[in-house]
Amino acid sequence: AFLSGATVFMLVPSRRSDPLLLRLDAPADWQVACGLDHEPGNPRTLLAPSYDVLADSPIEIGLHELVSFDVDGKRHDIAVWGNLTFDSDRLERDFAKIIRAEAEIFGQLPYDRYVFIMHVAPGLGDDT
After folding, report:
1. How is 115-128 classified by DSSP, letter by letter?
2. Is residue 60's pLDDT more than 60?
């Protein structure tokens, strides 16, 4: 399951700034990948400081591979869903180059952890 918060979660304008707790109910063998922090000890309960942060945090729930690495002391995760064999070391190296270039442009990495979500399988993109 892939959830894009802005298209899934209803906005209540008077409660836009309220912190939110999102409980996910999914099969036991499914993983959750999301940039939101989770409740300590419960990776299926996500915490968002406001609706805007929740709406801007895509969620991947399912059977995916996770590549985790650090760049400049910040954790990065790449959740890869799809029927594809890939070189996780190369993926990490390539993403690290992009992340370092962005840090150079912006002067820093303005987060503690960042999650990339990739859906890759034959027929999902433009093959031309």
Report:
1. EEEEE--TTSS---
2. yes
